[in-house]
Amino acid sequence: SSRIFSGMQPTSDSLQLGNYLGALTQWVALQEGNEAIYCVVDLHALTVSPDPAVLRDRTRRTAAQYLAAGVDPERSLLFVQSHVPEHAELAWLLSCHTGFGEAGRMTQFKDKSGKQGSEGTTVGLFTYPVLMAADILLYDTNLVPVGEDQRQHLELTRDLAQRLNTRFGAGTVVVPEPHIVKSTAKIYDLQDPTAKMSKSAASPNGLIELLDDPKVIAKRIRSAVTDTEREIRFDPVNKAGISNLLTIYSALTGRSIPELEASFEGRGYGDLKVELAGVVVDWVTPYQERVHGYLADPASLDEILAAGADKARDIAAVTLDRLYERTGLLARR
Ligand code: AQP
């Protein structure tokens, strides 16, 4: 049995299909036979200066979507990051072991700060990966299920873990491994199939938001950018758009890519899009019903999150005490 940890930011009303296929499906699968801990990382969301009421609402919405996707609070811990103060405390400790240049090399920081300019960029955005390392190391995590875009942050987490173990002795922290499933590690934008699908996409038409009107979802799939050939074939280099649609189709139905290629032989792109739109709508409709069910009862949702936070704190406090002791902080009496 391994310890699993992962989280998502409450930065949007709805998760997008990439979040679900790249991460959330793995979270659900890994609950079986492991000790899984899943978090709504609201402290991370503060890096983009959200409106307070909107952030609070999105935090519940994100938790409801974990549950609707199949995260089971009987088996896994589900909580909100800010309810466990040890995350922020460990982040400070780790930030004192992270090189300024090392943090500056994170491509997500370079992308996001580039868009906002240096005056619009906060120190929080810069230290974001350090807080993420704290999230992971706090629970002696073995495996972190994430999409491809988080690989570099996971490498930084591993470097920090190894550094602490070298400096303060073996066993100071557990060195985690990323769990990135190749087939769905990167779902692409429907309008720009070379860019990852993202909550903060350039054009909303490239994005599938799971809580959007199913009619809008279907339309976006039907208008996905493809290529000027006719053949439905998985070829990510030359046919990025078609390959992305096949990836999504395969992931949602469990049918293999070769099986799909065979079933679409001699048929047009329009057929693929219409059929896939049907698949997504059939899947997303009951998902939306489950989400709205959880949101209709915020007291029960908050109860689940409070129980998760209590258990998470028990684990986090032990790790933080160990790290404070090893790094030379005077024990509290
Ligand atoms: N397109 C994607 N394909 C596969 N996995 C993806 N993930 C995100 N986009 C894709 C994975 O989903 C989790 C979300 O983590 P996050 O909330 O920290 O957000 P993010 O990585 O920044 O992704 P978003 O949804 O696209 O948000 P923004 O707009 O902020 O960039 C992670 O496991 C991520 O790998």
Automatic annotation (TrEMBL):
Residues involved in L-tryptophan binding: 135
Catalytic reactions of this protein: tRNA(Trp) + L-tryptophan + ATP = L-tryptophyl-tRNA(Trp) + AMP + diphosphate + H(+)
E.C. number(s) listed in UniProt: 6.1.1.2
Superkingdom of origin: Bacteria
Subcellular location(s) per record: Cytoplasm
Chain location of the short sequence motif 'KMSKS' region per the record: 196-200
GO molecular function annotations of the record: ATP binding; tryptophan-tRNA ligase activity
Record-listed ATP binding positions: 9-11, 18-19, 147-149, 187, 196-200
UniProt enzyme class: ligase
Record GO cellular component, one term: cytosol
Pfam families: tRNA-synt_1b
Gene Ontology terms describing biological process: tryptophanyl-tRNA aminoacylation
ATP-binding among keywords: yes
Keyword DNA-binding (UniProt): no
Principal subcellular localisation of the protein: cytoplasm
Alphabetic keyword roster: Aminoacyl-tRNA synthetase, ATP-binding, Cytoplasm, Ligase, Nucleotide-binding, Protein biosynthesis
Functional note: Catalyzes the attachment of tryptophan to tRNA(Trp).
NCBIfam families, per the entry: trpS
Subunit structure: Homodimer.
UniProt family annotation: Belongs to the class-I aminoacyl-tRNA synthetase family.
Protein name per its UniProtKB record: Tryptophan--tRNA ligase
Organism: Cellulomonas rhizosphaerae
